[in-house]
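Pasting two entries for a bug report.
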Amino acid sequence: MIDSEIQQVEKYYNLIMEYLVTYSMQILGAILILFIGLWIAQKVSNMVAGLMQRHNIDITLTNFVSNVIKVLLIIMFLVIALGKIGISVTPFVAAIGAASLGAGLAMQGMLSNYGAGLAIIATRPFVVGDTIEVKGVSGQVKTIELGHTILINEEKVEITIPNKHIVGEIIHNSFSYSLVKGEIDIAYDANADLAIELIEKVLNDHELVSDSPHAQVGIERFAESGVTLSYRFWVPTTKIIETKLAVNRNVFKVIQGADIEIPFPQRIVTLNQTNDKGA
């Protein structure tokens, strides 16, 4: 029994040594080809990424294209290296195809997200830094991955959306800014033009309020207790809350400082007194 096992070991050892002696140069050549291929793939990938960045192409698309080129080049040189040592790649290709089919059936949801991610990267309905609203969720685009997109809202909360829920939906894109609305009432006998000028000055003086689109101030409606002035302005999406609170505070201060009356809700009730003739 032991002699038989020793013979088997010797047999495999002789086969390996014979293979190494016969194909030693091919093996060295294959290893050299593989190392050269890795170096070329890295260089070409970096070159493509640098070229796309110089042309201000979206960073997500840049990373995707450069990585795809790198993987394709590595696979090409790996096939060449395997052929150098006499290994046919046809069975491997068939096995990879069968495995890909099985994996595709098992991961349809994930693959649909990847497909949607490719569509987003190719069509670029939005880019990193834009503010979007889709399916009732809004925020500034932080990253765009193949499988999902991450938004960050004004509360600094990260929102992860699978890409399949973005493609095919109605997308509102306000780029890097979001619209903020505010209102304040003044008395009917107050100077509305002066109040509008003061509010415009507050908005123009605030550093986070965008100049383009320009802020808008005017009369929104005529309420029961006074005239409602409305102001609309654009601010960076991640600065909505702090900017809105600061602007509202400054608007209230300048209106009060100008002795413009801010009415409170009131209602006039008239009581009709009737004489009881039967008393």
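Entry 2 (this is the one that rendered wrong in the viewer):
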Amino acid sequence: MTTVAQPTDWQYALAQASEAARRGFHVFPLGRGKLPAIRSPHREDPPGTPPCRGECGQPGHGVHDATTDLDALAALFAQAPHATGYGVACGRGDMPLIGIDLDRKNGVDGVTELQQLAQQHGFRVPRTVTVCTPSGGFHLWFTGPAGARVPNSASKLAPGIDVRGTAGYLVGPGSVTPAGLYGLHPDLHEPTMFPIPEPLLRLILPPPLPRRLVAVPHGTAQLGRRMLGLVRTVLEAHPGERNGRLFWAACKAFEGARIEDAGAVERALVEAAVAVGLDEREARATIASAQRTARREYA
């Protein structure tokens, strides 16, 4: 038997999510298990299909559905009758949200671990917006610098400390799960988001990659300066963004490529993708998908 969320839970979640959207947070509906409430439209795609982050225009892409538009949010909730909460996307906008998730269960105390980190590295944890979790933990909400790509992690900083950054999300206050309710800390009467302490941000961000000399694929220069720039975009990609950069570069390349140049464009991009660690087969599939997309849009 399928369990449907009680109307009061759904209505409350929508109301709380709408208020968060009015405050500039990007939000989307969650089910009781704290997972996106709308099923992916790509769940039956064949293996090897390049990932979609909402480019198809359909809902069901989790955090990539997150919006501040109230009408769009209402439409998302209308397709999520089981929703009892909402997610708040991290890493968006000029003052991107960074979440520090402090677990206190199974003999682990993330609060104590964070205090020890603060002592070791000489920073103070401000009384920023704090959400209490049903298990007794806390979510600390901080603002980060614009443009910073903050990686998500679990217990990497210390036991019981998870980080929610770019393409991650936090469960919003007012969300209901089988374990209980997520709510704002009662001691913070006028909660304010503070910037994340710089020493803590340095611990979270990956060390800068050493500058490397990468050979530009043979024959790229003959395709023009624009193609050279697109190839370098792929060559400078970090892990986690390589496939996305390849797809974007291939779409741009095929926008203006002559039919007789298509093979040279593909060879240059495949070489670049393989140079940064992508599998050649995966790279060719991504490029083929981008070429089809470019043909549809610029036919």
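Dev reply: Rendering is fixed now. As a check, the viewer should reflect this: Confidence is low (pLDDT under 50) at residues 209-215.
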